[in-house]
Amino acid sequence: MKVFSALLLGLMVQLTFAQEREISGNVTDENGMPLIGVNIVIENTTTGTQTDFDGNYSITASEGDVLNFSFIGFATEQRTVRDNSVINVQMASDSSLEEVVVVGYGTQSKRKVTDNIASISADEINNIPVASLQGALTGKAAGVQITQINGKVEGGVKMRIRGISSISSSQEPLYVLDGMPLINDDESVSQAPINPLISLNPNDVESIEILKDASSAAIYGARGTNGVVLITTKSGKSGKTKVSLNTSTGWSKPTNKLEWLNAEEYIELFTEASTNSYGAEDTWLTEEGGYFDFMANGLDWRNGEVDTDWQDYALVDGAVQDHTLSISGGNEKTRFFVSGGYNRTEAIIRGNNLERYSLRTNIDHEISDKFDVGVNASASRTQIARIGTDNSFSTPLQAVAQSPLSPAYLEDGVIPNNESTIYYNFLMQEYNGDWDADIFRVLFNSYLQYEIIPGLNFRTELGYDNLGQTEEYFSGSLTQSASTNGYADANAVQSDKYNLNNYFNYFTTLGTDYDLDLVVGMNFEESSRKNQFVAGTGFPSDDLQTVASASEITSGTSTRTKYNFLSYFGRATFSMFDKYLFKGSLRYDGSSRFGDENRYGFFPAASAGWIISEEDFLTDSSTFSLLKLRGSWGVTGNAGIGNFASLGLFTGRAYNQRSALAPIQLANPELKWERTTQVDIGLDFGLLNNRISGELDYYVKKTNDLLLNEPIPGTSGYTSITRNVGSLENRGLEFVLNTKNFQTENFSWSSSLNLSTLDNEVTSLPGGDIVSGLNLVREGETISSFYVVEYAGVDPDNGDALFYRNTENADGSFDRSTTANYSEANRVVMGSPYPEFMAGFTNNLNFFNFDLSFTFQGEWGASLYNSGGKFQSGNARYEDNQTRDQLNRWQNPGDITDVPQARMYSTNGQQDSSRYLEESDFIRLRNLTFGYTLPASLSDRLTVDRLRVYFTGVNLLTFTDYSGFDPESTYDNLGNSNIQRGITFYSAPPAKTFTVGLNIEL
Questions:
Q1: What UniProt keywords apply to this chain's record, in alphabetical order (predicted)?
Q2: Who contacts 892 (Cβ-Cβ below 8 Å, separation ≥6)?
Q3: CB 968 within 8 A of CB 991
């Protein structure tokens, strides 16, 4: 019996193993395209696998086992193992699993959204090698203008959503990362801004939603006027643990260089200019020991021994490295995502570079069927080697003003001092000075969610944002600080923000045709800032570069400040029959920044939608997949002013070596919220099973009670007071068109086009015109319009610069006669710094294992004023090297040209006028990526799930008639002025970057 039992057991085991076999197959969608990452699990077991890049899978199963095929956005499929070893599956889209977008304090089905929300996925930004998160979004959303101020790696980034809605208050959107409003204050010790979001790693981002209309942004109330940018980072998913590596390296060049005079041309032009001013007998430039000899510093300029191209010293080849390693996974209870990133960017501006280290951990855990908790945390350190502002002679771009007769180095390698150059030689600062910024940022947001009853959840979130920034500057004894035997300063800023959200969410279905979603909650936010600054002079050695070694402390200060918000909010979303959609929201905001009489403000919003394609007359349509009409109205606010703008302030001062108090600000207890009312009418459409889809929107934004730093008479003892004065309006049209041009098994091509218009107008300004430099705020005009004298060209008889008088006649017309006397000409509005039309065009193509994507971006209708033109294109008025167009100067009676006669040290057309104002229209190939993914058969041999190599280019081509460095680069030294805009001054162009990269998934 024992022998028989053993034989019987062995036979059963053998039969069991005989039933197990390898099952393989391919999984595709309805169009035959392979689906990557489909989960295949044997029912009632934990055994499973996933499809590879080609949609193939393999799993060991027994006859009778049921295989479950599941994938986001598709209906789950089941197949039973019979006597077959190959099971191919075609999965159908599940219309019940709709695309979800992130909204304020929750998510919502995109199909039922009644607001205007632009959504950008990780696939659209992760492979764009730029250091800043905002830079990866350029050209991706209609009505959103994103501009990096110049080519510096840390340079400030301006994001404008549907125009400009304020004069003196903040014009930046509110950034919210995983529910945490971010600190977005420039903490640079100089007027050259540092992008506060430079510390974020773009590769950690899962999606970005831009809330553009008031209905979507009003849930953030007082800070929604300029739009809201919701950033969601990646999270883990249950299933197999995945390891992903994205690594790239590349090089950069300036997008553009200008053409300057060489030594021979410089000598010719300035000799002629001197002759025109002083006569041919005055040879002070060319005589032995004259000015040209001084510039040449002992070299023989007469025989061409010196011909320095200073631009090549200022603009150099850069480099970029970007590496991110992430691990994600989990089970039904716990999901995790961990990533580490490193970025090093060496700018195309000499001496400027950035190095960033980042770490992120996102964990979600289900304690029970009712309890969920989670933590999103990140830490980063960013080190920046900085250079001077655009108006600092130690900045590299100022070097292009030097004469080509001045050598950059002597034969022994020593950099010549200022005695042989027109301006300070920036190379002396590079080798004998230092300017470093160190940014350490910690972001933390945790949540606890509890299901009270089915459909009713309570969620509490606690967030913290800490931004610590230190800057140390040193200028040695051989630099411009030689007179003080060196100068050093140190600046430290510590900014903290605490954020607490408590809110209830209730969702219920009333009957079978009515859905109701309610959100009610409160928000408390407190922000604080501490700053310490100290400076000193006199150093015993250039090797000792901290303030501790200074012989004299020349200045020192410290400040502390704090403000907070207390808010209550609610939102109700209601749908009927899945086609009639309604939403309403209300936020009650209070801020310590405003006066006692107006500390709180109401910000309501409402929207409605009608999914016309769900009506009986369209449900069977083979043309319309979706047709939705929507409209929204809402009020948002702006609180981007000083922390104590409503209060009368005093400061401590020294008076005759005694402590004293001095008044510095007038009180305005009536100061209240700036309010923007916005109306949006939109149409969403999908045609031919969504092969063609898009959006069409028209909006009007009216801002009232503008927060304005209004100038007041100096006899009051003050220069300005913050008041609610005036109003302005933005209106525009936005169009988005998405198409699936080709969709076959081995080739696909999809496109996305976005177009937008913008019309900005100041509608009320009771105090009259505000003129700030070259810009004007005037009722009836675009905000920050250019206000300059109109240039009329050159008098062909004598080479004098001419200007239009533009004196208003009795009938309201303007006197268009010309004059050579600049003081007889009146300033007029000559253009706007803001584009009237913007476009973005993105294409994605896949051919077998190859992929190609590219984005074109364009702007039209804006102008740029070259404030450095009077020096660099000023027909030899100053000694600065000139652009080559100055060779086309007037020389003889009858010459027809726009360049006046060269007259050294004599003004002839260099005054501020439209001569230096140009249209800045452009079209730019913003980014291009070409990649190749190894077939599954090869990647399997390498034991990886996916391996892809790619090439990416950024700013590859620019088409423009603008004659300056770049149509987007602007002056970074405008400080806190929100009025002065559209001005450039020796401003560096952006980088043209080429990278090669590798994606590996395990």
A1: Cell outer membrane, Membrane, Signal, TonB box, Transmembrane, Transmembrane beta strand, Transport
A2: none
A3: no
